[in-house]
Amino acid sequence: RFRSVLAPALANRLRGTLRDRVESVWLSLGGPACVSERGELEDAETYLDALEKLEQAGEVDFARLAELLGELYAPPDPAATGNDLQIMTIHKAKGLEFGTVIVPGLQRGPGKSDAPLMRWRELPDRSLLLAPIKETGAEKEPAYEYLKNLDRAAEDTEAARLLYVAATRAQRRLHLFACPKKTMPPARSLLACAWPAAAEFYAGRKPPGKDDSAVEARAPTILRRLPEGWTLPDPPAAVAWIAPPDARGAEEEIEFSWAGETARHVGTVVHRWLQRLADDALEGWTPARVAALRPRLARELERRGVRSAECNDAAARVVRALTQTLQDERGRWLLGPRKEARSEYRVRRVVGNVLHSYVMDRVFRDDNGARWIADYKTSSHEGSDVEAFLDSERVRYEAQLARYAAALGEPQTMLGLYFPLLAGWREWASGE
Fold first, then answer.
1. Looking at residues 66-80, what average pLDDT do you find?
2. By C-alpha distance, which of 403, 409, 405 is closest to 429?
3. Considering only CA atoms, which of 18, 44, 20, 42 is closest in space to residue 31?
4. H or E, element range at 118
């Protein structure tokens, strides 16, 4: 069976893209059926994207591919709750809280990048200070160096703010790790920001050298038999029980209770691409670009388990939802550039002694400063009275969005439901 799948792919070398052939073989061998979690399908997509990125004329530099794969990381598990480990950047952790936070690698400095051709800074009188990079072989350009130092000072201030953000995500325990090679922290590192407090922990310690092979002796671990009848003690009352997330899983159960698995997967893919459009603030997105995604969307749906015979129709449904959003004034208002905008915004809230987790499709502030929470619903309506259907959907999801508003803890939050397949919209203020 393996030979029957692999032989056509080998016979068609240099025809089409390598990514398509590898993906076809993987699908034919039943690769998607072997994954145990939904996130593993996203990992496979990440690998195939890397393969496509490096391909040139149907071939790949395998040394470069191995190097690139070593730099890839699995995305955070959106369904991770309770005691599961979540790995994310400090930027992604904004607005979240965790019982224990671990921040490694504080000794690392900012990465090096090519010097920009131009540096500029707007002055208080609204004039512009502009300086070009120095000519090759010439002395340093004073104005350019001055602006570079200003940029570095701003970056260092931002680094200190990021360290503060990381440290304040912890509810009970915070672990900060750094392994400096010298007795002083590397310049412009997060450890340098924390050095006034961290210096005492490194005082008198010898930095590790190349010849340091001795390992600190440890007392042997002694196993002790528990007495007969021993039971695990009750947890402290302060520890909150973590409820199942009132997030994508619960929402999908409501939204697709009337439909099959294909509709569920269509909704997931539409949400994913609406997030992409919002992250780009719609820049560069046109109906033609969305239409060109149809083969890729069909492959994505097939990887999620949609039957091959239904993939084209399902992909067309996704294209229609994204296209109508781009062409709809309300859709562009939701996804365009906004203040404090976040997509797939994750928030946790303790109610009583229970920890709830929510994922909000879109959160932002409008031009008047009002906070908005908008949720996308890919349900459709085949009848004639669409307005009555939208009114009923508002009633259906009113409690869900009320929980979102309570989790943000801001009074007078505006709530909205957007229906990409219908270009429909319902809005109301929290508490109405």
1. 68
2. 405
3. 44
4. strand 118-122
Helix (H) or strand (E) holding 341: strand 339-351
Say if CB 316 and CB 294 are below 8 A apart: yes
Integer Cα distance of 431 and 411 in angstroms: 9
Residue 189 exposed, middle or buried by CB count within 10 Å (0-12, 13-18, 19+): buried
Calculate mean pLDDT across residues 46-73: 77
Retrieve residue 321's tokens: 């939802």
The pTM of the full predicted model, rounded to 2 decimals, is: 0.46
Of the candidates 43, 24, 23, which has an alpha carbon nearest to the alpha carbon of residue 35?
Answer: 43
Q: Is 208 helix (H, G, I), strand (E, B) or coil?
A: coil
Q: At what angle do helices 308-327 and 294-303 cross, to 10 degrees?
A: 130
Task: Report the alpha-carbon distance of residue 412 to residue 382 in Å, rounded.
Answer: 34
**Residues whose CB is less than 8 angstroms from the CB of residue 386 and which lie 6 or more positions away in sequence, other chains included:** 422, 424
Sign of CA dihedral 303, 308, 313, 319: positive
Name, in order, each residue with C-beta under 8 angstroms of 55's C-beta and a sequence gap of 6 or more: 17, 18, 19
Q: How many CB atoms lie within 10 A of CB 186?
A: 17
- Angle among Cα 168, 171, 175 to the nearest 5 degrees reads 70
Q: Which residues contact 378 (CB under 8 A, 6 or more apart)?
A: 255, 263, 266, 267, 270, 271, 321, 419, 420, 421
Q: What is the pLDDT of residue 329?
A: 93
Q: What are phi and psi of 225, to 5 degrees?
A: -80, 130
Q: Which of 131, 69, 95 lies closest to 343 in space, CA to CA?
A: 95
**Strand partners of residue 98:** 170
- Per-residue pLDDT tens over the stretch 251-264: 444 444 335 678 88
Q: What is the DSSP string of 310-337?
A: HHHHHHHHHHHHHHHHHHSHHHHHHHS-
In this structure, the number of other CB atoms found within 10 A of the CB of residue 317 comes to 23
Q: What is the pLDDT of residues 158-189, one digit of tens each?
A: 888 888 888 888 888 999 998 887 777 888 88
Q: Which residues on neighbouring strands pair with residue 129, listed in sequence order?
A: 121
Max Cα-Cα span within the chain:
82
Number of H helices, E strands in the chain: 13, 10
Which residues touch 317 (CB under 8 Å, ≥6 apart)?
Answer: 266, 421
Residue with tokens 């691409």: 273
